Amino acid sequence: MKSFTIQEINAILEGELVGNTDQKILGLEEIDKAGNSQITFIGSRKYAQKWDNSNAAAAIINEGLKAEPGENRALIRVKNADLAMAKLLEVFIKEPPHFDVDIHPTAVIHETATIGEGTKIGAGSYIGKDVVLGAAVIVYPNVTILDETKIGAYTVIWSGTVIRERTEIGAYCIFQNNVSIGGDGFGYRPREDGRGLLKIPHIGNVVIGNDVEIGANSSVDRAKFSSTIIGDGCKIDNQVQIAHNCVLGRSCIMAGASGLAGSVTLGDGVVIGGSASIKDHTTIHSGATVGAGSGVLADVPAGKTVLGYPAADAREKLKEWVACRNLIK
Questions:
Q1: Angle between helices 81-92 and 6-13 (to 10 degrees)
Q2: Are strands 197-199 and 188-190 parallel, antiparallel or unpaired?
């Protein structure tokens, strides 16, 4: 088990140490749950008020918040407690699941596949025809990667993920459990004879940039033609739907259970709140934010925050809700 003195932790965080503790720090925990061998974090006045009753040995705290360390306890003052906590979490991170051999004997790898140096492939995984895996790719057990897919170096693919044919994926990506990449888009038309629905073929692919993370049970559909594109640095939460022919710019964030209908375009740095839904053929321009649970039916200008259903300027929507509440008092 890793353990650190408070002085060692302060050296890592490059903060201002106030007070002291002789207790070795064994991990991190929320302020209400922390024990006397753990460090917590305080990012707002709400949590600063809980410090006196916390059992934590130490806390990372934002500059400007009022708190005293107390007996045999310490505070580390930093500019941003959230970022400092993330840095410390990297120090305490546990080793990933172990591979006894780099390529498990039960993995099925097509003879035409190219496997990069240092790549590991777990039990029961399938690597298809003409697949190219870069250096140090990690494929955990029971992953399927179908024909002509290309995956960049140091990408990590967790169990249950299916990556369909002709997908292109960059380096340093992370796909959590049961991600689906490159499935058919949702496209149907009524048959001319009126007997049911005609399935529209989707013959495109998915292109994913570098440093993209996609959460568990999320789906990215292949394009009808051309490509569904996810730009560098995008972070996608669990149970997110990205439909055919969507294009995401760089460093977009989509929170859990949100969804993009077909041919939606996101600029750079767009934030989509949890359970928000975006209508097809809509453009959300760079730097815009869509509030949780909102329904976007029209384009959103750059930098704008929208909220509600149908989504509108957040400030105007809040005023509208207040007015409605006052009407029924």
A1: 120
A2: antiparallel
DSSP string, 239-302: T-EE-TT-EE-TT-EE-TT-EE-TT-EE-TT-EE-TT-EE-TT-EE-TT-EE-TT-EE-S-B-T
* CB distance 156 to 174 below 8 Å: yes
Neighbours of 85 (CB within 10 A): 19
Q: Which helix (H) or strand (E) holds 322?
A: helix 314-327
Task: Give the separation between CA 194 and CA 317, rounded to whole angstroms.
Answer: 43
What is the C-alpha to C-alpha distance for residues 60 and 6, in angstroms, rounded to an integer? Answer: 11
- pTM for this structure? 0.93
DSSP label of 25: B
Residues facing residue 25 across a β-bridge: 4
Return the residue matching tokens 């990933």: 96
Contacts of 187 (CB under 8 A, 6+ apart): 199, 200, 202, 224, 244, 262
Q: What is the chain's alpha carbon radius of gyration, rounded to the nearest angstrom?
A: 24
> What amino acid is encoded at 9 in this protein?
I
Per the rule left: phi > 0, alpha: psi between -120 and 50, beta: everything else, 2 is: beta
The total number of residues written for the chain in this structure? 329
pLDDT in tens, 112-171: 999 999 999 999 999 999 999 999 999 999 999 999 999 999 999 999 999 999 999 999
Catalytic (active site) residue 244: yes
pLDDT in tens, 303-325: 999 999 999 999 999 999 999 88
Active-site position among 98, 104, 202, 244: 244
Cα distance between residue 235 and residue 85, in whole Å: 19
